[in-house]
Amino acid sequence: MLEVDDVSPDKCTFTFAITYSSQEQSSASGEAVHAVAVKTSYVSDLYVANSLVNLYSEFRKMSCSRKLFDEMPLRDAVSWTNLMKGYVKQGQLTTAQELFDEMPHRNEVSWVVIIAGYVKVGRYHDAIELFNSMLQSSSNRPNEAALVLVLSACTHIGAVSQGRWIHAYIDKHKFPMSINITNALIDMYCKCGILHSAREVFSRTPARDLLTWSTLISGLALHGRGHDALKLFDQMLSSGFHPDSIAVLGILNGCSHAGLVEEGCSIFYNMSQTWGITPEIEHYGCLIDLLGRAGQLQKALAIIIKMPLEPDIVMWRSLLSACRNHRNIELGERILHQIALLDLKKQGGGHLLVSNMYATFGRWDKMAQLRCRAREESEMKKPGWSCIEVDGEVHEFVADDRLHPRIAEIRHKLDDVLREAGMKGGYVSNTGQVLFDLSEEDRVQAVQWHSEKLAVAFGLMSMDVGCSIRIVKSLRICEDCHSAMKAISGVFEKEIVVRDRSRFHTFREGKCSCMDYW
Length: 518
Prior knowledge:
zinc ion binding; six-stranded mixed beta sheet
């Protein structure tokens, strides 16, 4: 940056040049401009310094960003926010939170940055608490970004009461119903199990984009409403929308969960021929899942062998699960051999997956070998959790939970519930995949304290008689818990809605909406 024809750069020139360097991801040019700013003393200008703090935060050079911030003679909310944004990008939320707490004045962007940080790392409860604090702040009103973020947090943990309250807040304060807010609301209602509310938001939205259609299609798929998802997909096509890979993935999931083999295969083959979409590994995974659930195991295996992509552990797990469900031990053994060729440790959960398969087939010696190998290589399965919302507060449980303040009472309630479910609903503990070297009593105990069972017991003792129990689970529901939920729903005349990582299960009158097709 040199003087040309006696024209010297001013603060606007520096700010523009630094911002351009940041946008173009050019660290070298940004540092060159910084050097000239120091030479010309413009580095002490508030706007120039703010741009430099943001530049180094973008490039994750936090020591430089912090040094500039500390040396600034004058700071504003932008200065603090730019530095905080860098720590959020680095995942240093503790430092970011400390900065946020120290800020003399906050603006909307400051709140959005810190809330986004917590959402990014999965600390959804903290994100919701921060949003509530923002509402209590007299100086700041949530903007669209904050609303979308907190709705996302509600979606992940199933905080439907909070989500509904935010929807009411949007209506009350007459926020423009932007496409981003609309899509976030539809997603929240779908994934919190309130499908009719999702459809209401959709029907009241005249200006829909492709994501609006895809979100509701995926929501219907999660609930096993494959026929409804297909109907909506056809409406989307009739409305002139060209599907993308996300829309196709959603409808393929819908076909898979509903057992619509012919329709799903047709959509898969139309991807490239009609819509010009190259199938990705996720689309092949849906096709394999679709065929596997329908018992077309050999056809699914043939597709895996011929597909142009390298099959991943998820795909093999899907087919392996189908072999277990359809009791095809011979093919299951072949697939186990294929999985053994993979680097199971890097694939995550591979040893545990295969050992569970051996347990299902009664191959206890093989199962023991793999369990020992998993322990030797420190392959740890990430602990699952289940959340339930009661009176606007989200309670989280893990298997064999001992931290909830009412856990003794909950365990006692669960004992009574399962006893009733066994006596009146025919529930019998399924301990087929529990370690074989435990006594039968210990094996029953091992499955009794699963997180979703604890959540159901807490719901039964805490919620009104007419209220549905809604649970969000981070992992796939196991066979034993699935059987227990069916029995409990019938014996206690209670609707229980469980969203696991794969789909929704609505238990009512001793039956599940998945019709045991999961």
